[in-house]
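Bumping my old thread because nobody answered last time. Still need a sequence for this structure:
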C-alpha cells in the first residue's frame, strides 16, 4: 500500500478554517451547510458541534488508515468540523471495534469497518461485544478486488489448472495469507469451496512476508489485493490467474474474473463507516450524506482509482444488507472449515 508518515498518535485532519472564512466560502458557492447535507437525508440539528473521532482498528499507514484519512478530509469540510483519526490496532481489530461499540452513541465516535466486521463473531469465541448488533452502519466507502497469483515459474498457467491440482492431490497446494481470518484467508477459503478442493493454509504476520515466500517458490498461490502484487505481475515475477470479483481490476485489466472462468467466487477488501448502536437516525443520515458527498470529490475518486479501488457510497440500509449477507456467507465458510482465531 502507499506509505504515509509514521506516527503513533492520532492525526487531526479536516477543515481548520475560521467560522467566518467558512461562511464566506459557502456564501461564494451559494450553498449553506444544510443544502450541502440535506440532499435526500435528514439533518441532525446542531450536529456536529465539535470534532468527530474516527477509530481505525489498524496501525497507521495501512490501507484502512489511508482510506479513512482520504474520505474524512472532505467530510470534515462538509460537516464544518474537524475529524480526528485515532488508530487502535490489536486483537484482530477487536480492540478498536469494542472501543467504539462501548462509546457514547451520539455520532462523535465512529469506526472504519472492514472485512473483520463480518467475520470476527465467528472467528472469536469470547468477544465482549457483538459486531452484528453493537455497531450500526453509516455508509460504505468502497472496495477493491482480490486476485489469485502464483509464482511465474509455477506449473499452473490458469485457475482451472490450479483447482485441478488441488482436487487431484488434496493438501498438496499451500497458500499464504496475512493471518487467520484475514481477507486473503477468507478469499482462499471461498475459492476452496467453489473449486471443491482443500489446500494448506500458511498464515503470516502480514501480507508482505507471504508475498516474499511466494516469490521464493515456498507457496503455491495467494489471494491478495492487486495493489500489493501488480508490480510483480508487471515485472514477470508473478502470474495472475483470476480476479475474484464481478468486474475485474483496473490495476490488472488483462486478468479475467473467476466468474468468467466458471468459478463462482466474490471476494473483495471493503471499507465503511459504522457507529455505536443507539446513535440517532438523524445523526446517521447527516454523516451518511457527508460521506456520499466526499466520495464524489476528485481527490477521493482519483486516489481510490490509483489504489485499484471503487467508491461505493449508498444508504445505511444498503450497507446493512451488504453486512448481513457477508456475515451469513463467511460465517458458514468459517464454521465449515473450522477456522478459529483464538
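Sorry it took so long. Here it is:
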Amino acid at each position: 500500500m502507499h506509505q504515509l508518515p509514521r506516527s503513533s498518535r492520532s492525526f487531526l485532519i479536516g477543515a481548520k478554517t475560521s467560522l467566518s472564512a467558512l461562511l464566506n466560502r459557502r456564501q461564494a458557492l451559494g450553498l449553506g451547510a444544510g443544502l450541502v447535507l440535506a440532499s435526500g437525508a435528514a439533518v441532525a440539528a446542531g450536529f456536529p458541534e465539535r470534532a468527530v473521532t474516527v477509530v481505525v482498528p489498524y496501525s497507521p499507514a495501512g490501507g484502512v488508515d489511508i482510506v479513512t484519512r482520504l474520505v474524512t478530509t472532505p467530510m470534515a469540510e462538509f460537516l464544518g468540523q474537524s475529524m480526528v483519526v485515532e488508530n487502535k490496532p490489536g486483537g484482530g481489530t477487536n480492540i478498536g471495534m469494542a472501543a467504539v461499540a462501548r462509546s457514547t452513541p451520539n455520532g462523535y465516535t465512529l469506526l472504519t469497518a472492514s472485512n473483520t466486521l463480518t467475520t470476527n463473531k465467528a472467528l472469536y469465541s469470547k468477544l465482549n461485544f457483538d459486531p452484528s448488533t453493537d455497531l450500526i452502519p453509516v455508509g460504505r466507502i468502497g472496495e477493491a478486488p482480490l486476485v489469485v497469483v502464483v509464482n511465474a515459474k509455477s506449473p499452473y498457467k490458469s485457475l482451472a489448472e490450479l483447482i485441478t491440482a488441488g482436487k487431484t492431490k488434496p493438501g498438496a497446494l499451500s497458500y499464504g495469507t496475512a493471518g487467520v481470518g484475514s481477507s486473503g484467508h477468507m478469499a482462499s477459503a471461498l475459492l476452496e469451496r467453489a473449486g471443491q478442493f482443500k489446500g494448506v493454509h500458511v498464515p503470516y504476520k502480514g501480507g508482505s512476508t507471504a508475498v516474499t515466500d511466494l516469490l521464493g517458490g515456498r507457496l503455491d498461490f495467494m489471494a491478495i489485493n492487486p495493489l500489493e502484487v501488480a508490480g510483480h505481475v508487471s515485472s514477470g515475477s508473478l502470474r495472475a490467474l483470476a480476479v475474484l470479483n464481478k468486474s475485474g481490476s483496473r490495476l490488472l485489466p488483462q486478468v479475467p474474473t473467476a466468474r468468467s472462468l466458471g468459478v463462482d467466487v466474490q471476494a473483495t477488501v471493503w471499507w465503511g463507516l459504522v457507529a455505536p448502536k443507539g446513535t440517532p437516525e438523524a445523526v446517521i443520515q447527516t454523516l451518511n450524506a457527508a460521506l456520499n458527498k466526499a466520495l464524489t470529490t476528485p481527490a477521493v475518486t482519483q486516489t481510490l482509482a490509483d489504489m485499484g479501488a471503487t467508491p461505493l457510497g449508498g444508504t445505511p440500509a444498503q450497507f446493512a444488507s451488504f453486512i448481513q449477507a457477508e456475515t451469513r456467507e463467511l460465517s458458514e465458510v468459517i464454521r465449515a472449515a473450522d477456522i478459529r482465531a483464538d
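The chain has 13 helices and twelve strands. Let me know if any region looks off to you.
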